[in-house]
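Service request form, structural biology core

Requester: graduate student, group of Dr. S.
Request type: structure prediction, single chain
Budget code: on file
Notes: please return the result as C-alpha cells.

Sequence provided:
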Amino acid sequence: MMLSDAVYAALGIGALAAAVVPRIVFRRPLSMPMVFLAAGVLVAVLPFPLPTVDPVRDRLWVEHVTEVCVIVSLMGAGLAINRPVRLRAWAGTWRLLGITLPLTVAATAATAAWLLGWPPAAALLLAAVLAPTDPVLAAEVRVGEPTDAEQDEDEVRFTLTSEAGLNDGLAFPFVLAALALAATAGSGWSANWLGGWLLTDVLGRGAVGLATGLVTGRLLGRMFFRAKASALRLSEHMEGFVALGATFVSYGIAELLQGYGFFAVFVTACTIRAAERSHGYHKVLHEFTEQIERLLTAVLLFLLGGFLATGGLAALTWQGALLSGLLLLVVRPVTGWVAQIGHPAGPRERLVTSLFGIRGIGSLFYLAYALGHDGFAGRAEQLWAVVAFTVLTSVMVHGAAATPVITRLDRLRRRSGEPP
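Core staff response, request fulfilled:
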C-alpha cells in the first residue's frame, strides 16, 4: 500500500510539474526534458519507495508506452504545421529525409562496426534506432500552435518538425533491415534479404502507411468540418480528445494492414489540417495532443533518469560514448549540411538545422521493439547503454543550446528584415 501511495504522489507531482516547468524554463538555456531527466536521476539515488524500470526486463511495457508517446507527438506535429505539402515548399524536409537519413544510418553503422567491433546486423540496428529525430525534446526548435498563415513558420522550425514527423516512420525499414540481416546471416553478412526487404518493407509497407494516412485524414476531415449531421461535425463542438481518436484509428488501421503506423499518423494529421486549414478547431486538437505528449514525455524521461542512475550505463564503454558523440556532433551536422547544399535557406538556417538532429523517444521505442525479436538478446544491455547515453547527451546538449541559438537566430532575422 505504501508503494502505491508513493506512486500516486509522484504521478501527481509530476503532472503539476509538467504544467509548471515549461513556463519556468521558458527563454532560459534549459528545457522541460532536462529537468525531468535530472529529477529521475535524483529521485533514484534517494531513499524513496518508487519502482524503477529496467527496459531489458520491462521491454514490452517500455515499447508500448514509448509507442503511444511517439504517435501522439506525430499527430500534434502534423496539426501544428501551417505550410501545405508541396515539393518546393517542403524542399528542406525532402533533402533531410532522402539524403541525411540514409547517410546517417550508413555512417553510424560503419562507425559502430569499426569502434565497437559489432557484427553488421547489430551495427545496422544501432544506426537505425538512432536515426529518428525528435524536436519535442527541445521545444524552441519546433513549430508552435496552428495559425491561419501558411508561411509564418521560419525555415528551421518547420524543417526540423516536418523531418521528425516523417523520419519516425521512415526509420522503420532500416530497423526491419537489421532484423532481416540478423535472421539471414546471424553475425555475418548476406544480401539474400535485400529483395524482399525492398519490395515489402520499403515499398509495400510504406505505400500502405501513406494510403492509410491520406484516406483516414480525408474521411475524418470531411466528418469534422463538412458532415451533414451536426453530431458528426465535431469541429462545432471543440472537443480536443478527438485528436486521440484520430491518432489511434489511423495508427491501428495502418498496423492491421501491415503498413507503417507512424507514417500514417503524421500524414493523417497533415491531411486533416488541409481539410479546413484556417479553422480554430486545429488549435484545440493540437493543444490537447501537446498536453498528453508533455505528460508522457515527462514520465518517460523521469523513468529514463532513474534507469541511468541505477546502473543503466554499466555496459557503456568509451567506444560507445565516443560513437554517441560522433553521431551528434559530426555525423548529423555533416550529413545535414550536405543535404542542404543548394537549398535557398540562408547559411545560418542551414547550420542550425544541421546541428539540431535531436535523439529522443523514437529511439527508445525502436530499440524496445527490435529486442522483442530474435537475434539481439545477447547485446540488449550494450544497446540500451549506448542509446540511453545518446538520448541523455542529446537532451542535455541540445536542450541547453536550443534557446540561446534560436533566440539569436530570430534576433538576427528581425534585424536584417528577413522573412521567416
